[in-house]
Write a structure and sequence with these properties.
- Chain A: It comes from Fundulus heteroclitus.
- Chain A: One of its GO terms (biological process) is microtubule-based process.
- Chain A: This is Tubulin epsilon 1.
- Chain A: Belongs to the tubulin family.
- The complex is a heterodimer of chains A (474) and B (446).
- Chain A is an alpha/beta fold and 474 residues long.
- Chain A has 2 domains: 290 residues, Tubulin/FtsZ, GTPase domain (Rossmann fold), CATH 3.40.50; 51 residues, Helix hairpin bin (Helix Hairpins), CATH 1.10.287.600.
- In chain A, the strands form 3 sheets. A 6-stranded parallel beta sheet of chain A has the order 6-5-1-7-8-9, with helices on both faces. In chain A, strands 10-13-11-12 form a 4-stranded mixed beta sheet. In chain A, strands 3-2-4 form a 3-stranded antiparallel beta sheet, with no helix packed on it.
- In chain A, α5 packs across α6 and α8 crosses α9.
- The longest helix of chain A has 23 residues.
- Chain B has 15 helices and 15 strands.
- Chain B has a 10-stranded mixed beta sheet with strand order 8-6-1-9-10-11-12-15-13-14, with helices on both faces. Chain B has a 3-stranded mixed beta sheet with strand order 2-5-7.
- In chain B, α7 runs parallel beside α8.
- With 446 residues, chain B is of the alpha/beta class.
- The longest helix of chain B has 20 residues.
- Chain B has a domain of 193 residues: Tubulin/FtsZ, GTPase domain (Rossmann fold), CATH 3.40.50.
- The chains are: A alpha/beta (474), B alpha/beta (446).
- Chains A and B meet through α10, α12 and β12 of A and α4, α9, α10 and α15 of B.
Chain lengths: 474, 446
Amino acid sequence: MTQSVVVQVGQCGNQVGCRFWDLALREHAHVNKRGLYDEALSSFFRNVDLRKSDGGDCCVGGRIQHLKARAVLIDMEEGVVNGILQGPLREVFDSTQLLTDVSGSGNNWAVGHLTYGSAYREAIVNKLRKAAEHCDCLQCFFLIHSMGGGTGSGLGTRVLSLLEEEFPDVCRIVTAMYPSAEDDVITSPYNSVLAMRELTEHADCVLPVENQSLVDIVNKISVMSHGAKPGSVLRKDSTVTSGQGSLSPTEKPFDAMNNIVANLLLNITSSARFEGSLNMDLNEIAMNLVPFPRLHYLVPSLTPLYTLADVNIPTRRLDQMFSDAFSKDHQLIRADPKRSLYLACALMVRGNVQVSDLRRNIERLRPSLPFVSWNQEGWKTGLCSVPPVGHSHSLLALANNTCVKPTFMELRDRFTKLYRKKAHLHHYLDVDGMEQSIFSESLSSLSELIDEYHQLDATKARLIPDAPRLSIAR
Amino acid sequence: MSVVTVQLGQCGNQVGQELFDVISSDAQDGQRKTYSSVSRERFFRQTSQGGKKMRYNKNKAPRGFYYDCCYVGKVLKYFFFFLRVPDFEARAVLVDMEPKVINHSMNRAAKSGRWRYAEASHFSQKQGSGNNWANGFRVLGPRHRDAVEELVRREVEHCDVLAGFIPMMSVAGGTGSGVGTFVTQCLRDVYPSSFVLNHLTWPYGTGEVIVQNYNSVLTLAHLYQLSDALLVHENDAVHRICSQQLNLKQISFGDLNRVIAHQLAGVLQPALTPDSCGAYSGNPLGELVSALACHPEYKLLSACSIPQMASASIAFSTFSWPALLKHLRQMLIANTKMEEGIDWQVRPPPASAGRTSSLTAGGFNASLANLLILRGKDVYSAETGGFEDPAIYTSWLPPAEALSLWKSPVPFDKYEKSATLVSNSQALLRPLDDMVRKAWNMFASR
């Protein structure tokens, strides 16, 4: 069984990460009835016996003594991390996993990437190495950060390139929170575009998530729970809708949105942790879904978002789950994948779903989904037997789809609006090591990416004839 | 006489476990003693640590005493009769690059109570192959070559007479296809005079893994040089059998695997062959390969069996050899794997039609060679003339050579009469063509 390390950078990254650890503990508590430290737990947690003098890690199979998360928490201001350490999750982290500074990055990518990146390089590499050494077989780094701020985007992408340098064989999966149009940070377009270039070059795959979509989804859930038909009761204990039943009694404002992203991470790793009839490991995600190295942006969508407390799940509801996964309301960025071209699609199913249900739904949905000509039947499927807490089954769809192109184009437009006027540019250029060429390079990298998606899009309507096959001499 | 199975990857391990399950329950169901003992010798070995599984089975077995030192044992000894049940360990090596499936299979086997996997015959790593054939073939295979060869060698040493190897794998994933190809190569190198019959599972056409076509093409190309014969089951066909023939509403991979195991066991269980002179064949793989793979360029075999029905319906059905064989022949000619929806219009082309350039002329499936295995009651009176019709074979092999017939008077897997047909025919041509076409399209893009 392999282990993964979660690196959370910046305010957003740490808040989402905090929800993730909470939900992970809840999920394992639900599944692991005997209190033994098993392989599934070891993928995200270490079992530490504090009485041992060498701060000893216990191996798999013994009783749970003390769980420590395999995480590195980085933030350039102390507020969020201190909040975590005073909250109910304080036991799960120890001080060697944290890296904080006092003053923050001032929403400035250059400060995060260059100033703090160089100042803390050694410290960051040491902490990462320590976390990696505690792992028997490290498979993947999960990096969580936002694109709009300073620390998350700047220092986060610096950490990404450090991970590529120090651990080239380990997969890097980045969950990046993209700013919406009405973002509260004025310079977020600059930060995002500068960070995008790093993501395109150094990440193995990126799961973009937009705040606005999360807001829409949370609103839909609350409408459902307040305006539900009489007789149908919304199950309150599902992990997607609320953190109730978890450690913290009061919910903070962004908690509902962060829960969704945390669920995304849990579902991606579920098949690697738990048993199933068709396992799907993390390295298979990049292998199957990334046809060309730069096009590694996978649009996630998570269903179901809530369950009614009916006990029987008729087949129609299961089919509804599959249809929902492809509707634009359930995508975690604002995009409509059905209108754009699919390069590849992965369906990770959890719970009591059989291969016949999967086949039936793929055949049903396939005609309405435009796939690229050289991957007409390209589906990657995974079946995991353990459902998430509060649901009997769930589906995570990861689509490599050209619908990210409009998102990137909007980002580029917002960037050029500011860049044309050179607004706020001096804050960046004042930073040691920052030059104007970095801006133009990032812009051209983004433009090239958009171009590549555009070229694939252009093949959408055209009927590409099969390339002539090699003929065998008779 | 003994066959060593090498189970590779998730699919190989899951199907292999179902196969041993079917074989052990078939050999046990009050069958004739020679049949059971030949079957057991072929697939299992008995160990002396059989004391753990104790069964109180007054009706079936001769009475005996079991001596135990402890008090409980003494008390039970005075008042009950115990049968010492020998432990059967499968002659199998389980290989996977991640541990979950092997653990699951070993637990399920042990739970059956009739047989289990040997404790030390498995090899697993922590991290899978990532659906990457190159990773399996070039990196993981060579890296773990010694460990796997050691396990196989130990298993072979337990055999009195080695009949051959059956590596079981899927062609879509990374471990089964990549590591499986490498392991087949190693078996060829280390045991050059043994028979190697690969059992392959082809994935659904509508996708289980996006790079499945690449993995499949690479695997088949290599295996064609290395293996003696490739026996193929396609997920699509088996799925159709489950849904239309067995009428299962919700089909799981376990159901698919049981159908595959049933067909495979129908081929591999003991039978009387023309060469074995009145006893059960001691060389099943060799005789199968020599009967079917008559030309080194034609090694793809497919299997179909009849009858296939839900186990609840078996008790209410009657079977007759003429009906079974007539259906089976039409299944062969019309290239379907089940009795539902046979196209009776398909006929062999008249002799004057000459060669056609399309893949299959008018839906007719021409065969190179066929192996018909009949099991059950009145098997000696079954009329198999329909399979000797020269029109269903090619012109350069006389039908007497092309058809081989194996029989066993012992009923198989609860069916009073059953027949399995292994054929070297054009049946796999269309799926193979699709696979190569999709792989080529993906490769030739940009």
